[in-house]
Amino acid sequence: DVVSIPNRNLVVIARPTGGELAKYHKDNAPRFTAPEYRNFSLVRLQIEDVLDEVSVAEDKLRDAYQDRLNEFTVPELRTIKQILLGTEADAQKAHAALSSGGPFNKVAADIAKLDPDSTELGELSRRQLPVPALADAAFALALSSVSQPIQSDLGWHILKVTKISPLKVRNFEEVRDQLQKEMAAELAVDVLFKLANNFEDALGGGDTLSEAARKLNFKVIRFTGINRAGTRELGKPVAGLDPEALRVAFETEENYDSPLISAGESGYFVVHLDKVTPPALRPLDKVRSQVRDALLTEKRAEMAG
Predict the structure, then answer these.
(1) Residue 9's pLDDT is what?
(2) Where are the alpha helices (DSSP H) in the chain?
(3) Which of 33, 159, 242, 265 has the most C-beta neighbours closer than 10 Å?
(4) Cα–Cα dist 68/171, whole Å
(5) What is the pLDDT of residues 105-131, one digit of tens each?
């Protein structure tokens, strides 16, 4: 058996004096030191910002539709049941029983010793049936009818079609918005690349980050009091700040712009570092309760030992 007795339950410690707190605060300065904080401005050049400026000609959309017609075509599907038998004699016997009105699952159980689940092949397209003879037979059957026995390397098959979902082709109007969005996104990559070059040229020509952003209609997002962990004082999380932008902000010198950074498929971003607040010991009056708790914990541990 294990009994855990916290140190705080063993002894009563007098409240630390102001002098004791001040000394402990000074002697353990790293524990009560605020990390480096940075203020920075962020401009994101994103695909979504230029999508509205990109239009795709109607004839281009129709050409793309024809080129991708297979993508918008759902083949005919059939839900198929099967009885698989080892000999032709058993196959003929099963087929005769089915032709006389015998229920498919009962014939499968009586002659092939198959349970109902074993007869289900599921909903399949012609291409999903690997044996051509089976595919031809299945897709020639009328709904609810059964095939003649078909031989394959696996044995003798009798098929039944229980559902037919006909071939469906989505028409141009149904997929027009999808095509417009996808093709516009492809064109927007080139548009954004040109804008990114213009943005770099503006910065290189002496514009501030805000001035360059205003000229090209991009938004400047400002972050203040951010530490390397991406939080503010007391660990408050920061919305809208991704790890890569944070990393760049802490690699950029004060009053300088970062290079134009690729953010993958989403676009680019630039950071301007506005201000660096170096690490500093927090004043005792702001951390008095933390200092007192730490000192009491240490004293209790010493006396309990």
Answers:
(1) 59
(2) 18-27, 47-50, 58-67, 88-99, 104-112, 132-138, 172-204, 209-215, 243-249, 284-304
(3) 159
(4) 12
(5) 999 999 999 999 999 999 999 999 989
Kindly state the average pLDDT of the residues 227-233: 91
Paired with 222 in beta bridges are 41
User: What is the rounded distance in angstroms from the CA atom of residue 166 to the CA atom of residue 163?
Assistant: 10
In whole angstroms, give the CA distance from residue 239 to residue 245. 12
Pairing outcome for strands 168-169 and 155-165: unpaired
What distance in Å separates the CA atoms of residue 134 and residue 79, rounded to the nearest whole number?
13
Contacting residues for 84 by C-beta, under 8 A, at least 6 apart:
112, 114, 154, 155, 156, 157
Q: pLDDT, tens digit, for every residue of 135-154?
A: 999 999 999 999 999 999 99
* 3-state SS assignment for residue 115: coil
Structure tokens at 1: 């058996």
Residues 6+ apart with CB under 8 A from 288: 21
Collapsing DSSP states into helix, strand and coil, what is residue 277?
strand
Residue 7 pLDDT greater than 70, yes or no: no
Select from 213, 185, 210, 187 the least CA-distant residue to 199: 213
Tell me the pTM. Answer: 0.57
Q: Which helix (H) or strand (E) holds 51?
A: none
Residues 236-246 have pLDDT tens digits of 888 889 999 99
Instruction: Kindly tell me the sign of the dihedral angle through the C-alpha atoms of 194, 197, 199, 205.
Output: negative
